[in-house]
Design a protein that fits this description.
The complex is a heterodimer of chains A (286) and B (224). Chain A is mostly helical. Chain A has a single domain, classed as ABC transporter involved in vitamin B12 uptake, BtuC (Orthogonal Bundle), CATH 1.10.3470. Chain A has eleven helices and two strands, in the order H-H-H-H-E-E-H-H-H-H-H-H-H. Chain A has a two-stranded antiparallel sheet with strand order 1-2. In chain A, a hairpin with a 2-residue loop joins strand 1 and strand 2. In chain B, strand 6, helix 6 and strand 7 form a beta-alpha-beta unit. Chain B is globular, with a radius of gyration of 17 Å. The longest helix of chain B has 18 residues. The chains are: A mainly alpha (286), B alpha/beta (224). The interface between A and B is medium-sized, with 15 and 19 residues.
Amino acid sequence: MSAFFSYLVHGIALGCSFALLASGIIIIYRVTRVVNLAQGTFAVVAAFTTATLTEAGLPHGAAEFVGVLGAATVGLVTGVVAIAKRGTRPAASLIATLGFAILGYAFEILIWGEEPRSFGGLEGSFHVFDLEFPRQYGLVVIVTLIVFGLLELFLERSYAGKALTACASNPFAAKLVGISVVRMGLFGFALGGAFGGVAGILITPLAPLSYDSDVSLFVSGFASAIVAGLERPLLALGGGLVMGVAEALVAGYSRASYQTAFALSLALVLLLVQGLRRPAAQLADE
Amino acid sequence: MNVVEVADLSVRYGSATALDGVSLSVAAGERVALVGSNGAGKSSLLNALSGVVAKAAGTAVVHGRFAHVPEGRQLFRELSVEDNLRLGAFRVRDRDTSWLYSLLPKLERLRKRRAGALSGGQQQLVAIARGLMARPDVLAIDEMSLGLAPLVVRELSRLLLRLNAERGLTVLLVEQSARVALGICTRAYVLESGRIVAHGTTAELARSAFVRSAYLGDSAEAAS
C-alpha cells in the first residue's frame, strides 16, 4: 500500500509537468491545427539554459525566468518556421516542427554537449503517512496550479485571451473582424514554448534532462493532450494527472523504460477510438 | 460620393473563376443588393472587399470602414454574445457595447448566453450587431435570410432600413432571395457565373422579364 501511495504522489508531480506540456500542445493546436512535435524541445532548452545560468552564479528565480523566456522565444521561432508563410498547410507545418526539433538536437549538443544536465531544486523533504517525498514535488504542484490559474484568467477574462479563443473557434470570422490568425498562432507558439519551459524547469531537479529527452516528454505531453481531448487547455491538467499517475504505476510495478511505450500506446489507442467514433458521429448528424 | 468601387475585378480559386471582370459602385447611404443564384460569385465579391481572398485582377476599394457579416453567421460559438460583440470592435478599439444594447434591446437579454446556443434568428441579429461594433460606414451582409423564418427576416429587414435611415449606414446586401433583396434595397446588381448580367433600380429590375422569370417567379409584384 505504501508503494502504491508513493507511486501516486510521484505520478501527481510527474503529471503536473505533463499537464503543462499538454496545455502548450493544445493552445498551439487550437489556433493553428498543428500538432507541435517540438514541444519537448522547449522543456529541454529551458532546463539547459537554467542549468547554465545557475552554474554561472545567477540566483534561482532569475535563472528559471530567463529559462522560460528562452523557451518562449524558441517557441516563437518554431512558430515562424511552421506557420508564418501564408497558406502553409497544417501537415507541412507539422513536418516543419519535426524538422525544428531535430535541428534543435544539433544546437543543444553544440552548446551544451551530450551529457544530461540538472540543477538544484527546492531542498528538503516532507512526510505523508511515514513516506518521505522531496519538497520539489510540492513546488511542482503549486507552480502548476498557479500557471493554470493564470491561464484560466487569461483565456476567460482578457481581450487577448478571447481573441485567441475566437481564432480557434472560427478563423474565418476572426479574420473578418480584423484579428490576424497568423499572429495569434505565433503568440500561441510562444505561449506553448513558455508552458513547455515551465515543465522543463520543474521536472529537471527531479530527473536530469538530456538533449534527446524531448521525445519522451513530447509523447507523455501529447498523450495527456489526447486524454484531455485536444480542445480545452484547462482540461490538460486532468489529462496530465491521469497520464502521470498511470506512467508512475507502470514504472513502479514493471519497468521505468515502459513509461514512454505506455504513453505512446495509450495515445495511439485513444486516437484510433476517436477516429472510429468521429465518422459514426458524423453519420448520426446526417 | 462612392464608398465602394469595384473595377474589372476577377477572383479565381485554382482553375475555377469565381468573378470575371466585375465592375460596380455603391454611393454613401445607398442600399444596394447583389442578387444571383448559388455560385454566381456574390460571396467572393464580399470576400474580395474584405481582403480575405486574393484578387486575380482589378480593384475592389472601400472608402471608409467596412464590416462584413458572413454567410452562415459565423459567430464565435464558444464565446458569449457580449464577447462576440466586443471582438467585433477589434479594429476600432472602442469596445463599449452599451450603445448597441440601447439600439437593439433584444440583445441585452442575450448578452451572457453562449452564441452557439442561440436560435438562427438570434444568431443573425448578433452577427449584424457584431458588424455594427466595427462602427462601419458600409455594412455588407451575406445571405441574411438564409434558413430564417419570414417573420425574422422582416424584423431584420426593418432593422437595416432603420440603420440606413437614422445613421446613414450604407448597406450592401448579398441575397439568393431576390424578393428579400429587392424589398430592402433601392438598387441591385444581378450576377451569373461571375459576371454582372443586369443592374438598375430595384423597381426597374422587378419589372424586367428576365429577373421576374429567373428570380421572382410569379411574385414579382411583392417586391415593388
